[in-house]
Please model this.
Amino acid sequence: MRTPAVLLAVAVGVVLADSSVVTIALPDILARYHVEISTLAWVLTAFNLALALSALPAAFLARRRPVPVFGGGVLVFSAASLLCGFAPSFGVLVAGRAVQGVAGAAVVCAALDLLSQAARTEARAARVWALAGIVGAALGPAVGGILTQLLGWESIFFVQAPVVLLALVALRGAYTVPVPEPAGRPHIGANAALLLISGGLVAALFLLVILLINGWRLDPLQAGLAVTVMPLAAIAAARFGRTIMPLWVRATSGVLLIAGGLAALGWLPHAGAAWTFPPQLLIGAGLGFALSALTERALAGRSAQAVHGGWTIAARHAGVVLGLLLLTPIFTHDLHKSEHEVLASGTAAILDSRIPPLDKIAVARHIAGAVDDAKQQARIPNVSEVVGKHDGSGYADLISHLQDQLDRAVTQAFSHSFLVAALLSLTALVPILLSRREVSL
Amino acid sequence: MRTIVAAAAASLLLIVVYLALGGASYAPARVADPCAVRGWSNPQGLQQTVEQIVLSGLDGAACKLHVSREDMVLAFASRDALSRFAHQHHVSTQQVDELVRAGLLRSIDDAENAGAFNSTIAHLLGGFVRRFPIEQLISLLQQLPGL
Model:
C-alpha cells in the first residue's frame, strides 16, 4: 500500500480508536476530577454522540471539498486532543471530547474520499477504510491501557495528536474530484445492522475492560494486554475473511460469532482474564467479518463514497450511544444488587470461618467500611488488605473464601449486560437477512 | 452457508462448554434461612459458646424482621449502619436492640438447657445482655480478647 493510503488509514484508525481508548483510563480520570460515576460516562458518550451527529454533515462537506475538510479536521482533532490532555476540569475534558468527535467525523469521512485517490479504486479504498476502522475500534482499549499504565491517562491524548497530524502529509498531491450527481439513498439494511452490532459491542469494548480493571483488579497494562486477543482476531478475520462471499453470509457469520462470544462472557464459569480469551476470539473474529462485510455492502455500488461512509460512521456511533444508554442502567442496577449479595455472603463466610470468634466482629466491620469506600472509588477492595495481616490457616482460608465470593459477585454483576448485548447483536440478523437480496454481491 | 454453520457451531460449543463448567451458577453463596432450626453443636470453651449464643440470638431477631443473620451483623457495623437498617425495615433502632436482646436471652436459655454452662454463668450472661445496649455489648466483647 502507498504511503498516503497508510497515513490516511492510520488517521482513521486513531480517530475511531478514540471511541473506546479512554475506557481503561476511567478510574484514573475519576480520581483526578472527583465526579459521580454516572457523570463519568460522558467522557465516552460525548465523543460517540458528537461523532454520530456530525458524521453526515461532515460527509456531505467532505464530498465537495475533501482536502480542506480533512486538513481542518486533522488540525481541530489534534488541538482538541491536547485540550483533553491538559483539561483543568471535567467539563473542559468532556467539551474537548465532543470537539474531538466533530473533528473526527470530518477526518474519517474525508479520508474515505482521499483514499479512493490514494488506493486507486473505490472498492479497495472502501476495504482499507473499513479495516482501519475495525483495527482502530478493537485496538482502542488495549492501547489506552498500555499508555495509561506507562505514561498516565493524559498521554493517550498527547500521543494521538502528532500521529493524526502526520496524516497531513497525505494531502500532498491530493485533489478535489468534481461532484457528479446527488448522493443516492443509503443502504438501510447494512446501516441498521451496523447500528445494532455496535450497540452490542459496547459490552465487549467497554464493560469487559471495566470488569478486568475495576472488578478483577488487573492493572491497566495487564488489562490492556488481556484485551489484545480481540483486535488480533479482528485483524485476522477482516484480512482472511475477504474471500467469504456473498457479503451477507460473512456478515451473518460475524453476527453469530459476536453474539456467541458475548453470551459466553455472560456465562463465565470462573473469574480470571484467561476465561475471557475464547469469547474474545469469537467476538474479534465476528467483528472482523461483520464490520468489513457491512461497510463494504453499505458502500458497494453507491456514488459519493464519503456520504455513504458517513452513514456507516453515524450508524456505528449511534449504536455505541444506544449500547451505552441501554447497558449502563442494567449494569449499575446489577452492581448495586451484587453489592448487597457480596456483603451478605462475605459476612456469612466470616461467621462460618475458623478465626477467633471475637475477631469476626472486627473483620466484618472492616469489610463493611471497605465496601463503602470502594463505592466512592469505583474499585473493588483488596480482600487481603481489608482483613489485615494475621497468622493462622483460619485467616488464609477466610481470605481465599472472601476473594472467591467477591469474584463471583463481580462477575455475576456483569452477566446480564453481556447477555443483553448478545441479544442486541443478534437482532442485527433481521436487517441483514431482510436485505440480503437487495444487492447481488 | 458453511461459514454460517461453522460460526453458529463455534458459538454454541463455547456457550455449552462454559455452561457445563458452571457458568450459569457462578454466583455468591446464598445465605442460610435464619428461621430454619440450627442445632446446638458442642462448643469448645467459653469463646465459642458466646459466639453460638450471639449467632443464635441474631438468627432469632433476623427471623422476626424477615432478613438474614448476616444483615443483622452488618446493621451493627456502625451507628450509621444501624440507623439505615432500622429506616429500611420501618422500625426504630431501639426495637432492633430489643429484638436482638430477646434472641440472645432465648439462646442463653437454650445453651443452659443443652448443658453448655451452669445456671450461675447463664444468670451472669443474662444480666449483661439485659443491662447493656447491644452496641455497647459488642464493644465490650471486642475489648475482652482474653475472654
User: Anything to note?
Assistant: The CA atoms of residues 46 and 95 of chain A lie 8 Å apart. The first helix of chain A runs from residue 3 to 17.
